Structures are given as C-alpha cells and as structure tokens.
User: Fold this.
Amino acid sequence: MNLEKFEKLDENKKNRIIEAAMNEFIKEGFNGASTNTIVKNAEISKGALFNYFENKENLYLYLIKENLNKLLENFQDRKELPKSLEFFEGLELFINANINFFTAHPNTFKFLANARSEEHTSELQSHSGIS
Assistant:
C-alpha cells in the first residue's frame, strides 16, 4: 500500500474515497463490492485508487483499521469517567456514550458489523496482522 500518498491527499478527496468505499462495502459486502463503483462515486480514476491501496483487500483492511481506531478512541475517552460511580451509573454512561458514538457514526457501525459477519474476514486478518 502507498498510504503516504493517500494520507497527503486533501481531506475532501480522502473523504470522498473513504465514503464511497465504505458505502460500497456496506451495501455489497467485500465479495460483491465493485472498485468500479467506488471510483465512480469517489470521482477518481481506478489507477489512482490502486496507486493508494494496490487492491480491494488493502482498501478494505485500511477501512477496518480506520474504523476500529475511531471506535477505540471513543473507548479511550471513556477512561475519564469519574471513578466513584456506582456500577449501574457507570454502565449507563458507557452504554449511552457508545450509542451516541454509533448514532453520530452510523456507517462505522454498519461497516464493522458487516466486516465481522463476512466469511473472509478472518482470512484477511491473518494476512494483515489485524487481531
């Protein structure tokens, strides 16, 4: 992957690529997702997409990692909860924070839920080092 080039893109173009890819993977799953549809919706060339990610698998793995990082950052923010909360108060705050996160980022939820249920995800994980 050539993530350095991708990361140097202007935010608008990066966001178009990420959004187009996430929408396609959510709608079609990994196997059914079309890079032709992704590049059309992102308004980039297919060569540009493959220049950044080399193949569909690398794009998919990038999106998994990015969405997991977003989710983990949300959990990190929960560390700041007061230590003196009762168990159920803390649980309620934690659940509400996560509901708020997924409400604010519905495609993150949809994408990660779909990725988890995909048959090939464990195979991709073993090749990528995602655990």
Remarks:
- The chain has a mean pLDDT of 84.
- Helices lie at 3-7, 11-32, 35-42, 46-53, 56-78, 87-104, 106-117, 121-128.
- The chain has eight helices and no strands.
- The CA atoms of residues 10 and 48 lie 14 Å apart.
